[in-house]
Design brief:
Helix content is 5%, strand content 47%. The protein is mostly beta strands. A 6-stranded antiparallel barrel has the order 1-2-3-6-5-4. A hairpin with a 5-residue loop joins β5 (75-86) and β6 (92-98).
Length: 99
Amino acid sequence: MCDLTPATFSDVVGSAFTVDLGTQAAGIELVLSALEEHPRSPGAPRPQPFTLTFLGPAGQHLAQATYRFVHPDLGDLDLFIVPRGPGSDGRHRYEAAFN
């Protein structure tokens, strides 16, 4: 899947993605908790900039990197995520920005 837009993710907010960790047999599950659309900036390469926020389990932290995300409806996606730290519930938050 090459052309990712907000519409790509709008129907899967609240669903789980499995993040392939490469060396481990089982991946880690992250839930897409939010999709935020942003206004387009003049000259920006993406016509519809947006941000995805994912929630991960407490106690298991992913570093900033590109990971293979697997979703039953969307298939395999390589996404670069940035950790945003744990929330008050202890779950780790991650962000993927598309600008």
